[in-house]
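Need a sequence for this fold. Nothing fancy.
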């Protein structure tokens, strides 16, 4: 059989070769018996299954936190919440009353919530997979189905699936699994995020064509090119097996002609700090502080936050730690806050809009903790404000900074106001970048949100995935415009979206003028290696050619031709 290639979205810049094993976590249920169902018996069966599922989730959360990371493990907290959701429980109860066995009642109760989440935008659509995960777990327990052990697959296995849920992906053992590929999914899906945390080759979102690959076929998973190669040539197999182990560079790196580019990592939890440092990150380019506020009964107080930020600074005593203030709303609901139900939460009250409004007290408490941490002498703290769209919003945030600093001064508490910055995530922020840069020390481009807003293409909506590519000319021009505005106003500029972690784009980004790149920790060694081979003048010429392109295809072609000539 001749070699053929399927394309999707590469999740991790790693490649390997292996043998296909198809996986599905969805149990096929036979039609319910026509006999009489005893509701009390079925309710008890459901209650028992739910208790067992809760125990399993707690165990899996603990294992995931140890193997993958605390941030990734928190998805199982959400699964427990779904397990206990009154709407789900009422749906099961109603279905049992209608005469269905517990397993069929679970299927029916989850159907509408899954459909509702599938119709949402952005990361809320990922909740559909979370619900499927909980549903399938309950059904398996109710029918005494076999629990497929993804952690016990033979060495050299490539897992193919319609989709992989968080609990599926967390089981994969990188020592045995050569990689995975899925029909659905995007670069910011749970499966892709877990793959990067595990440094596991993965290609997601290949589409229905994936179903044409037979079990036991030999495939190459190229997570860098976003390709799945079926029945690859021996040369392609050897190339995949020989994927180099990239040297971890603990020191900052420069381009070939001496320009230093800061290579940082994105984190969300203290548990990720040491792993991030172990990959050679110079510091933290995005500390997502909202994860400190999730899955708890009340907000962390000032001292808890102070200790968390201090720990990050102590981990990188010679580096920079960029902390994003609370970015909630959108896809990050917090139970103890009065968050409105919005038709389109990504265009609603989120980020700085809440910090200047209903969450003003939380914002001031967070700033107090950050200013105190900045005064202890470890590392260099930077603070950036999310979802700023106008200069007026930034001015109001800076007024709060002054108010908090004055209060600490009057209380006799040691503090320091660190360098301040703004995330560029909206077209409005791009057009206002000169006015924003005048007021702060740096700008940081969040390409995940910027791309979805520039292209009006929601993250994780597979129907518009083609539009959601930062290599679109409009997105590149927005990035270039932001960089120019920052430098013209003596501000440095970084990037903390997924685009920053793609080594194939490193020369382009350096050529556009970025001073800092922040990414998933697993890609830090690859990007550092790429930086060291770059000539900045040649990179600038490459960026100029890319900016002149009028279509995505032209941009990709120019990037590929440039990389081929290296």
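Here you go.
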């Amino acid at each position: 059989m001749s070699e053929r290639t399927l394309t999707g979205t590469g999740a991790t810049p790693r490649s390997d070769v292996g043998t296909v094993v198809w996986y599905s976590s969805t149990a096929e249920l036979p039609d319910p018996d026509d006999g009489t169902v005893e509701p009390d018996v079925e309710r008890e069966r459901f209650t028992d299954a739910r208790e067992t599922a809760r125990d399993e989730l707690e165990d899996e959360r603990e294992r995931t936190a140890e193997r993958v990371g605390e941030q990734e493990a928190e998805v199982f907290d959400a699964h427990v919440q779904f397990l206990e959701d009154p709407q789900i429980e009422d749906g099961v109860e109603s279905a049992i009353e209608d005469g269905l066995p517990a397993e069929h009642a679970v299927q029916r109760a989850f159907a509408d919530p899954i459909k509702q989440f599938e119709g949402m935008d952005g990361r809320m659509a990922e909740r559909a997979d979370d619900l499927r995960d909980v549903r399938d777990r309950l059904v398996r327990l109710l029918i005494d189905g076999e629990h497929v052990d993804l952690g016990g697959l033979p060495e050299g296995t490539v897992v193919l699936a319609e989709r992989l849920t968080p609990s599926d992906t967390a089981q994969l053992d990188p020592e045995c699994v050569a990689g995975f590929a899925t029909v659905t999914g995007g670069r910011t899906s749970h499966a892709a995020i877990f793959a990067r945390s595990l440094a596991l080759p993965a290609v997601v979102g290949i589409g229905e064509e994936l179903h044409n690959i037979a079990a036991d076929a030999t495939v190459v998973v190229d997570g860098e090119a976003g390709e799945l190669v079926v029945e690859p040539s021996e040369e392609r197999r050897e190339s995949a097996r020989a994927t180099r182990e990239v040297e971890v560079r603990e020191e900052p790196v420069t381009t070939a002609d001496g320009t230093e580019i800061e290579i940082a990592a994105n984190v969300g939890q203290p548990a990720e700090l040491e792993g991030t440092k172990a990959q050679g990150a110079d510091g933290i380019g995005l500390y997502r502080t909202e994860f400190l506020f999730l899955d708890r009964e009340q907000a962390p107080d000032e001292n808890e936050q102070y200790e968390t930020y201090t720990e990050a600074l102590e981990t990188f005593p010679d580096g920079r730690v960029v902390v994003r203030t609370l970015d909630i709303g959108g896809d990050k609901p917090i139970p103890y806050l009065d968050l409105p139900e919005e038709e389109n939460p990504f265009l609603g009250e989120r980020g700085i809009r809440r910090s200047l409004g209903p969450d003003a007290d939380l914002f001031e408490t967070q700033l107090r903790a950050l200013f105190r941490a900045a005064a202890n002498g470890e590392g260099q703290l930077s603070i950036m404000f999310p979802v700023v769209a106008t200069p007026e919003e930034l001015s109001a945030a800076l007024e709060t900074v002054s108010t908090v600093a004055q209060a600490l001064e009057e209380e006799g508490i040691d503090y320091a106001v660190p360098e301040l910055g703004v995330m560029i995530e909206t077209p409005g922020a791009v057009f206002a970048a000169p006015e924003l840069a005048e007021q702060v020390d740096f700008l940081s481009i969040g390409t995940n949100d910027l791309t979805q807003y520039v292209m009006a293409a929601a993250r994780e909506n597979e129907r518009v995935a083609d539009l959601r590519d930062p290599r679109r000319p409009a997105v590149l021009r927005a990035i270039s415009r932001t960089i120019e505005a920052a430098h013209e106003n003596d501000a440095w500029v970084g990037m903390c979206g997924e685009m920053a972690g793609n080594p194939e784009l490193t020369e382009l980004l350096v050529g556009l003028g970025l001073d800092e790149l922040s990414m998933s920790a697993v890609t830090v060694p690859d990007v550092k290696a790429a930086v060291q081979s770059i000539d900045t003048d040649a990179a600038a010429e490459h960026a100029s050619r890319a900016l002149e392109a009028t279509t995505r295809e032209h941009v990709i072609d120019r990037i590929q031709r440039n990389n081929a000539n290296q």
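For context: DSSP finds 22 helices and 17 strands in the chain.
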